[in-house]
Amino acid sequence: MIWFLRVVFIAALGSMIWVATWASLITPLSDVPPDVWRHPWFLITLMNAYWGLIVFYVWVAWKEQSTGARVLWFFAIVLLGTIAMAIYMIDELFSVDSHSDLTRIVAQRNEGKVFLPGVLVALAVAMLIFV
Fold first, then answer.
1. What is the pTM of this model?
2. I need a surface site. Which of 53, 54, 90, 131 has the fewest CB within 10 A?
């Protein structure tokens, strides 16, 4: 199961990076027509996505025991969405043996390292400023 999940989250990360890069090369987010922002289906899709991010973050906040890691993961997840979520899961899935029980991934708490979420937040902020 660990190998299957590794493949799933690597595929999610790769596809999200590909589609985000493709969309960014075609048109900047600031060029989305105002009518799109007001369309009910766009709004519900956006709300659905952000509630999914929040629900995932609540689990991450429980797993990560340091305040610094919790804060940085919050900003990484809100700014990068599924990209940050996939990176979190890939990091978790590669921290165990491929024959490990999923309990280690789902239920074991971490000490709360800040390096990885710090790098993600820095990259997200740099993209907001320079792209």
1. 0.90
2. 131
What is the C-alpha to C-alpha distance for residues 6 and 91, in angstroms, rounded to an integer? Answer: 9
Degrees to nearest 5, angle at CA 48 with 11 and 41: 110
Cβ 73 vs Cβ 64: under 8 Å: yes
Structural domain spans, the chain: 2-130
d(CA 58, CA 44): 21
Secondary structure in 3-state letters for 2-67: HHHHHHHHHHHHHHHHHHHHHHHHHCCHHHCCHHHHHCHHHHHHHHHHHHHHHHHHHHHHHHECCH
Interval 62-115: pLDDT, tens: 999 999 999 999 999 999 999 999 999 999 999 998 888 888 888 888 898 999
Q: Pick from 115, 34, 31: which is nearest to 73 by CA?
A: 115
